[in-house]
Amino acid sequence: MLLFMSSSAVAQQAAATAPAAGSAPMLSSEKIALIVLVVAAAAILLVLVTLLRIIKLLSNELHKMYFAERGIDIETVEKQIAATQKSGWQKLMDALTDAVPVEREKDVLLDHNYDGIKELDNSLPPWWVYMFYLTIFFAAVYLLHYHVLGTGKLSAAEYQTEMENARIAKIAHEQALAAKGMGFDMAKLAPLTDAASLESGKNIFVTNCASCHGNKGEGGVGPNLTDKFWIHGGDFKSVFNTINNGVLDKGMIAWKAMLKPQKIQEVASYIKTLQGTNPPNAKSPQGTEYKSEQTGAAAAGSTNAPADSTKTTAPKDSTANQTGAKK
Questions:
Q1: How far apart are CA 315 and CA 306, in angstroms?
Q2: All residues at 6 or more sequence positions from 317 whose CB lies less than 8 Å from its CB, including other chains
Q3: Which of 85, 102, 125 corresponds to the end of one domain?
Q4: Which of 38, 57, 91, 236 is 20 to 30 Å from the Cα of 22, by its Cα?
Q5: pLDDT tens track, the chain, 327 positions
Q6: From the CB of residue 72, how many other CB atoms can be counted at a distance below 10 Å?
Q7: Are 263 and 211 in contact (CB under 8 A)?
Q8: Are 271 and 308 in contact (CB under 8 A)?
Q9: Is 258 a domain residue?
Q10: Which of 93, 104, 91, 97 is nearest to 124 (CA)?
Q11: CB 213 within 8 A of CB 274
Q12: Are 275 and 313 in contact (CB under 8 A)?
């Protein structure tokens, strides 16, 4: 009784101090109760083993006193008993196999044979029978737990729970990043205009993109990025998505595997500043001419290179002075 009371006290103390840990995960009451039961069972088993040893020692002493009063040598008696008894291992094997000794095989021999091969009517090994009974018991418990009482979740339900937990964890992670100013909201995607971002985008472009699009965006293996013609869309989000997802059939990899969204935004912002820069050796136009929503209201004589054609005046024809590059 004292053991259970002390175990309950330990469980209550653990439950009381668990919330104060903060960073450490809290144990549920079911887990705490299971731990207490296991500890209590181990303690009870230890006490029982100790009592059995004490009883055995007392029994041996009483036997010695009994035989000593009658003048019998206890050691001689014990040797005689040991000679007629099997060892613990032998008893265990006999209990598990229920094997019939060779000298007694005639007792289980059947009265028919096949081509001189005789058959013995042996019983199934007890270990096999016990295992079979155990599987029946397990099946019954499994059926009740999962299909009758509904106290356990099936594989499909566990999968749904894990997916929901992952969704919640993802939302919490995104909220934590947003609170620290490290999040990235695609809904608010827009070109960057500050010098630091554009310089970072330029460095990334020169390192990773210039080999295909040229150092100044004039084009090479890849298309010209300085004119008004775009293969996959000329608005800022289209440019961002093209860099992010790549164009695998044209040999352009998806840079999202190597660049963070913020870095892709910087590269896309820098690319938009190349509009109308009219570099030498520019590649011929490819794709469809992109016209922003503000084209009609844009000033026709503007010579500035805007950061985003969807927000500012459309640039002059970047290939006006290029031979054979008709815009």
A1: 7
A2: 227, 228, 327
A3: 85
A4: 38
A5: 444 444 444 445 544 444 444 444 566 777 888 888 899 999 999 999 999 889 988 887 887 787 777 777 777 777 776 666 667 777 777 777 777 777 777 887 888 878 888 888 887 888 888 899 999 999 999 999 988 888 888 999 999 999 999 999 988 887 776 666 556 667 778 889 999 999 999 999 999 999 999 988 898 888 999 888 999 888 888 999 999 899 988 889 999 889 888 899 899 999 989 988 889 888 888 888 888 755 544 444 444 444 444 443 334 443 333 333 333
A6: 11
A7: no
A8: no
A9: yes
A10: 97
A11: no
A12: no
Please name the amino acid found at residue 68.
A
Sequence-distant (6+) residues with CB within 8 A of 177 are 183, 184
Q: In degrees rounded to 5, what are phi and psi of residue 119?
A: -115, 135
Task: Report pTM.
Answer: 0.39
**Structural tokens at position 59:** 């029994």
Instruction: Examine the fold and report which residue of 70, 85, 100 is the final residue of a domain before the chain moves on.
Output: 85
Domain membership of residue 153 (yes or no) is no
Alpha-carbon torsion (47, 53, 57, 60), positive or negative: positive
Let me know if residue 285 belongs to a domain.
yes
CATH of the domain at 250: 1.10.760.10
Distance of CA 279 to the CA centre of its chain: 50
Q: How many domains does the chain have?
A: 2
Answer yes or no: is 59 within a domain. Answer: yes
Which residues, including other chains, have CB under 8 Å from residue 299's CB and lie 6 or more apart?
A: 313
The first and second tokens of residue 169, run together, are 């964890």
Q: Which two tokens stand for residue 93?
A: 């094997």
